[in-house]
Design goal:
Blueprint (H helix, E strand, L loop, with lengths): L1 H15 L9 H26 L7 H23 L11 H28 L1 E3 L30 H27 L5 H27 L8 E3 L2 H24 L12 H25 L5
Antiparallel strand pairs: 1-2
Length: 292
């Protein structure tokens, strides 16, 4: 009986330590699988908008098309699909994930984009758009910013949420797989593996956005002064967003044994990630400077 019991315990331990992709929290796992289905929708939507030349439209359609990229699929659809889940919408991972992305994206778009203009050579040109919203003190001289294509139209806040939902969903699933693959390793090796996967995921998504989004179709409206420098060095700069936010979002409702994040904690965590990443960008500005 003891040998049989020992065998059963070994099997249970092996099963518990088997690598897995999705969270053991069923509510979070559902949301992760759902947001993965958004990935092809996201690429299709962006492809249609770019190929049709709809990036540069009047104020209303500029905002409407970017709302359409995010809200219908990522907010309205999960709200309807999870209406009978038994988890209140305020406590649901899908809602808090959207809330976190909105707060984080607002901060990094309002402040961090100014660093992209001056340090990385990013340019926005939307001739039909007359509304702008970004930091008045950080970044380029406000007197010449619009003429130099260094102003942020409001739609960029909205479409960036959709971009970041894709990046964070895929990254977190991959990070968990690596983390659970290393459970049998020593503590130091586990930490090293975690640092490596977070670093690789951060650098990959920073590079991939530039490589895939700055296309011929979009180049009239969004471009970099030196694209090669942006892909090489700018990707490292951009990855500092994700070095902070990927592991931070990973912790949200990850362990069933811990309390769910409240809405206030979700907002505060997003603000902290925005502040820490802002510090990293400013340190780059202080010690390295422009890449072009």
């Amino acid at each position: 009986m003891s040998a049989q019991s020992s065998s059963s315990n070994s099997s249970a331990t092996a099963s518990a330590q088997s690598p897995y992709w999705f969270s053991k929290n069923a509510d979070k796992a559902w949301a992760e699988k759902f947001f993965l289905t958004f990935v092809p929708v996201f690429f299709l939507y962006n492809g249609v908008v770019q190929s049709a030349g709809w990036l540069d439209t009047n104020n209303f359609w500029h905002i409407a098309q970017n709302v359409g990229m995010w809200i219908p699929y990522c907010v309205f659809l999960p709200a309807w699909l999870r209406r009978h889940s038994g988890v209140p919408w305020r406590e649901s991972y899908w809602f808090k994930f959207n809330l976190y992305m909105f707060v984080f994206v607002f901060l990094v778009t309002y402040f961090h984009t100014e660093y992209f203009f001056d340090l990385l050579g990013l340019r926005y040109r939307f001739d039909e758009v007359t509304l702008y919203f970004d930091s008045a003190l950080i970044g380029p001289d406000e007197a010449t910013a619009a003429a130099d294509y260094k102003k942020v139209p409001p739609g960029m806040y909205l479409n960036a949420v959709a971009f970041f939902i894709v990046y964070h969903t895929v990254a977190i699933v991959c990070m968990r797989r690596v983390q659970t693959m290393t459970l049998g390793w020593g503590a130091g090796a586990q930490r090293a593996a975690w640092i490596v996967i977070v670093g690789i995921a951060s650098l990959f998504f920073a590079w991939a956005e530039t490589r895939l989004y700055i296309t011929q179709s979009a180049s009239t409206n969004v471009w970099y002064v030196d694209l090669e420098a942006m892909l090489l060095w700018g990707s490292v700069f951009y990855s500092m967003y994700f070095l902070v936010s990927f592991p931070n979002v990973f912790r949200m409702d990850e362990k069933i044994s811990e309390m769910r994040w409240t809405l206030s904690r979700t907002v505060l965590e997003a603000c902290a990630a925005g502040a820490i990443s802002l510090l990293l960008l400013d340190l780059w500005a202080n010690f390295i400077g422009p890449i072009y």
